[in-house]
């Protein structure tokens, strides 16, 4: 009886103990104390509690803490329970399979996801496939030498100084961040010497920042204003640190010191995490990551106008072209207005990948920055110097020193190909053997070529991020120039151009063909006005370029005065026009001058018709017809 009595009481105690452990594990998970929650849930598994909920929490805690190998282990166990995963867990399982190198298995899981959730946006993204058409070429990717065995991430470039977040040194009174089981992060700095070496990292600023969790800084152009992320930690009744919400803080540099101005006011909603600030090149917009109610996923990207007085405008939610059901974070805006960000919701290589989109082009698509910089693990927080040739990013890929590590890289652009077709503006017929000259932004000739029999031309190995001028010349056609901007080209495919040129043929009025301002005359006068000389000089240039052209100068009057008087006046105007062209070197034999009086009015200002002086002016003109 004694044994039975003890057994009856031990069983309820055991159940009570297990329920308490489950509550503790759930609380740790819900407060994002992932390392603690993993230990608690694993302890429950060791005690024989292998439920769907426990496996889900173990898998998710590892996934959200970027421990993809362990996440795979628990998602696999969850899959083995013959349990129908929901969309989120199905997708995360497929992502972890990529991270551990099981790409074919990941593909199979995404095919299952596609069948089960055909209306999911992630399904459509999966169908569209991985978009790696980036012109950015990442080379010389190196682990920075000053990484620690802890988490180092989130670089900001301030002149020769690299500012980053690190969990080294236990600056916060040896307190531990429950999510990672490491020290709370502080901002550090390292100076890059002319030799390329970095100085030993030290605390960025001791006087202005508090003990709070700091990360992801960004600086204004003048280097005097800084925005950064900070966790609003507090102490509970037992004087233990309790994680709060992330907010963006502002600090201003004056009198040789950084002065903390506290959190910026973006919203009245105090229950939202707002982090990862980034400034547009002109400083007029602040981008950030947040988990507002309207967010598509766990965190989305937003932007807000920065007013002249330092206040902020209305928050704008970036489109679902950028934001997904997953995590979008760590935005960065390059000098050419390209948004680079981290995401695990777009098709990628696994974990967080780095993506780009041209903010200047509404038709631009999100592009994966490719395996040159992305890995099956988390790759995030990319920054680039102002010359757009060197930068830094963070990753927890294997081969590093600690948890998250800092990497440097060199940046170049893959050359693109410009193709074109030259056609007649009137007939749309192809123009063969037209001369094509390519000039750079400083008008240096880069190459000269000719169109083929179909009017096509191809200009290879074009450097992107540049402006070019394409000049087109052909006999009996007006020379033409087209400005080509490959500044924003996001693919190394053909960059197509169709250029129509106007043919110079008999009866064509050169003034109209060249879109010249008309050659006008004052009332009852025949001298060449200053404004008319500008147009006539362009006629001279065309005649010098095409020595075969013969011109008839036709001059006209308004309807006022007698027809005899107007005929004589128009001839005087034609002769004056001819004389000006001859004075500029045009052979007189190529020119004829005829006065037409008031016989060819361009409007209804006939005799006894009331017209304005401007309308009469339109009739006092010279025209230039090709003979």
TrEMBL record:
Enumerate the InterPro entries for this protein: 6-blade_b-propeller_TolB-like, Bact_OuterMem_StrucFunc, CarboxyPept-like_regulatory, OMP_bac, OmpA-like, OmpA-like_sf, WD40
Name any GO cellular component annotation: cell outer membrane
Q: Which residues form the signal peptide?
A: none
Q: What is its main location?
A: membrane
Residue ranges of domain OmpA-like in the record: 508-627
One Pfam family, please name it. Answer: PD40
Q: Where in the cell is it found?
A: Cell outer membrane
Q: Which UniProt keywords apply?
A: Cell outer membrane, Membrane
Source superkingdom: Bacteria
* CDD domains, per database record: OmpA_C-like
The answer, when asked if Membrane is one of the entry's keywords, is: yes
Sorted alphabetically, which PANTHER family does this protein's record hold? LIPOPROTEIN YIAD-RELATED, STATOR ELEMENT OF FLAGELLAR MOTOR COMPLEX
**What is the protein name stated in its UniProt record?**
Cell envelope biogenesis protein OmpA
